[in-house]
Design goal:
single chain; alpha/beta; Elongation Factor Tu (Ef-tu), domain 3; Rossmann fold; 3 domains; eight-stranded antiparallel beta sheet; six-stranded mixed beta sheet; transmembrane helix; Integral membrane protein TmpA
Length: 493
């Protein structure tokens, strides 16, 4: 963005919303035609000071991008690094095993082990444990360590890496099983057709799961992805258990060993049993809960739930039908301390229906799960950047008495009209003087120059970006590539 555009944002009051009385955020009067306070005054003063001193304009003062920024922060982001580390480690072991004795049991154990790791990487109790451990790092720890630890929300790379690796291991198992079945003279055990048929069926299901998880398909056909990923995944585990029992029965007969004794000595059996428990656990907690909807506008609704309480950084899975599409929402405590809320903004068929036909009951499963925002508590000073209904996850900061000092930058369409005065008052509880931009009057603006200025003035340790995937990737890359630590969840975080 050119310096003249930045100046117009800073010195010409855009149509934005901000607290009229930063000292009293809970009773602030919000108007549609206010100007940026605090930030705009400091930015304008700084801009004029730079001009008087003969300094370079804002564009010239933008830090240069780091060397190999596109590779480091895009092609080899943390998610892909974790994926590559997991997959390449498995690949190296796979090659070593195939080059030596190529035992069927080694292949099936490795396939089951990766399937277990893949499932645990998404298990709510495991996810909560990971976030609690990472967020326990004290703020007195070196900043570099805290910034590395805060990337833990990319654990989806482990899920994907183990999923692909399990397919490779299993494909090797199927190949070797087929070879021994059709070539008895090879010296291996002669197997019947039943385990071979089951093996190929599971292989086809695994391949389908991987195909529908491809990002482009997943984003365009999310409902199909979710249903196939869930039900095919369950079917794979069930058939894998059956295959293991059938295969173990044939092997144990050949070695004159009781089936039960053979199974309990087989690691794959225990891996699959733990996988079954991990899958079943959230569904044991399936409940239909009461919901009190609060209509905000034709674009948003606020859902109040009281079946439990929430804490900072937790999200909930909700659905109208327990076996159809599930949607995750960030939660934040209501002021009464006895219930919590989540904001639903129109973003698709399900959310649109939720606004038009407001539910009084919804299904929930599992436990409330920590999300990306929770790791921000390792920092002392954070700039929170969001757009539209992304303000919902940001409001979860209100549930943490030990939250970092915050500055909020929120760009939305008619925020007062869309989300209501109460939501904006909650925003001012996080930041007494937030920067809230109304795109209906100012249009969509490049927020990066504003963010950089606030980071500098606020001496922030990190920038927390919560928005749609395109905006999040763009802002995080623009900041990180120029040395500003920025964090934002992607579609698979």
């Amino acid at each position: 963005m050119s310096s003249t555009v930045v100046e117009s944002i800073i010195t010409v009051p855009p149509a934005v919303i901000c607290a009229s009385d930063p000292a009293s955020p809970s009773t602030s009067a919000w108007t549609e035609d206010s100007t940026i306070k605090g930030f705009s005054e400091k930015a304008e003063e700084s801009h004029h000071r730079d001009s008087e001193d003969g300094s370079l304009d804002l564009e010239a003062q933008i830090p240069r991008k780091r060397r190999l920024a596109a590779i480091r922060f895009t092609f080899l982001n943390i998610y892909r690094r974790l994926f590559s580390l997991v997959f390449l480690t498995n690949l190296a072991v796979f090659v070593a095993i195939m080059a030596t004795d190529r035992r069927l049991l080694a292949l099936v154990n490795a396939a089951a082990g990766n399937l277990l790791a893949c499932g645990l990487a998404r298990q709510p109790l495991v996810v909560n444990s990971i976030f609690v451990i990472v967020a326990s790092i004290p703020r007195s720890a070196p900043l570099r360590l805290r910034r590395i630890a805060a990337k833990v929300y990319h654990y989806g790379g482990v899920h994907s890496g183990c999923g692909i690796a399990s397919f490779v291991w299993y494909a090797g198992f199927v190949g070797l099983l087929s070879w021994e079945h059709w070539t008895p003279a090879s010296g291996g055990p002669t197997t019947s057709a039943t385990p071979v048929i089951l093996a190929y069926l599971i292989l086809a299901l695994l391949f389908t799961i991987i195909v529908v998880a491809y990002p482009r398909f997943r984003m365009k056909k999310h409902d199909y992805f979710e249903l196939m990923h869930r039900f095919f995944g369950w079917l794979v585990v069930a058939l894998f258990v059956i295959l293991l029992v059938v295969f173990a029965d044939e092997v144990s007969r050949a070695s004159n060993e009781p089936l039960g004794r053979f199974l309990i000595k087989l690691p794959a059996f225990w891996f699959l049993m733990v996988t079954v428990v991990a899958i079943v656990h959230p569904w044991v907690l399936l409940r239909k809960v009461k919901v009190q909807p609060e209509f905000l506008s034709s674009h948003a609704v606020r859902l109040h739930l009281s079946h439990t309480t929430t804490t900072f950084g937790k999200g909930i899975q909700l659905a109208r039908h327990p076996l159809l599409d599930w949607h995750g929402f960030a939660t934040f405590s209501d002021l009464n301390g006895k219930s919590f809320s989540c904001l639903v903004s129109k973003a698709g068929d399900w959310t649109a229906a939720c606004i038009q036909d407001q539910p009084t009951h919804l299904w929930k499963r599992g436990v409330l799960t920590y999300g990306f925002a929770y790791v921000m508590r390792v920092f002392k000073r954070v700039v929170v950047v969001t757009t539209g209904s992304g303000i919902g996850p940001c409001l979860s900061f209100l549930g943490d008495d030990n939250r970092p000092a915050l500055r909020v930058v929120w760009q939305a369409r008619a925020p007062l009209k869309t989300y209501g005065e109460e939501v904006l008052n909650l925003v001012s509880r996080m930041d007494a003087n937030p920067v809230v931009i109304d795109t209906n009057q100012s249009g969509r603006i490049d927020m990066v120059p504003i963010i950089r200025r606030i980071v500098k003035d606020f001496d922030a340790e990190a920038v927390c970006v919560i928005s749609n995937p395109v905006f999040t990737k763009k802002v995080v890359y623009e900041l990180e590539s120029r040395g500003v630590p920025a964090f934002g969840p992607i579609f698979d975080s």
